[in-house]
Amino acid sequence: MNLDWSLCEALKNTNVSGIDNVLHIYDVNCQYYVHLKERIEKNEHLKIDERIQLHHAIGLFHVHGHQDECLYRFATTYVPGAGVVDGEILETLWAVLNTVSTSTRTASLASRTELLDDQMGDSNFKKMLNICKCHLMLKFLQTTDFCSQICFKGKTIIAKYHRALDNATSSREYFDDLDRAAPQAQRDEWKESIEVAEKARLTDVDEMDYMLPQYTNGATLKEIEADMAKQDSRSPDPAADNGSITSWLIKGLKIEDSQFVLSNSVIVPLLISLQG
Ligand SMILES: [Zn+2]
Is 75 helix (H, G, I), strand (E, B) or coil? Predict the structure, then answer.
């Protein structure tokens, strides 16, 4: 209930008017969003504007601790339009708060709360001061080059934008190289399938399961051995040396295995030590 109320109030009071698509990132969204609509409809104190479409996602710090399916259903990486965003706010403060944590260890609960609250307030204040520093400079100087040089040294949102533009170019080149490795027909098929899944994601996140590995586990060596022995016993033409073909093949595989183990335990360390 507290969380539902916070979400509704945040959407009401944080100037999202005119924004119809809202990316809602929460650590356990895979469970939280399931009955969200019903909870809001049942409670007269909760309301979300009908025009707002929530896109539920999970921050990258947390999503890797979830089930495999959650990654493709909720990681911001796979939400169309989300861009490259970790979706974590409080966690990014840990590095700063760690430095003051020693002085809170022996403090009373009230002092500890006050000190941490003060530190977080200071961080928010600094963010507010710097968020559009370069935007104002840009307006004043009217030169993007000068602005980008200054921004690059800072951590403002504009600096991040310039960094993202640069990274987008190198990411595109990397992707194109990878993409060229697959045949055109396969690329078209993949593209169509993921576009269908992404379109359906808003109403049914399960559609993103298309991204999960599609393979099933292969047979074990023992199962292959048994299967081959069965086929071997039915064969009217036994091997020339009177031994079975199966045992000959299995022996070969075992020799190959031993070679691999030997190479890893003796030859590779030897090469490393010689290089060192
Ligand atoms: Zn999950």
Answer: strand
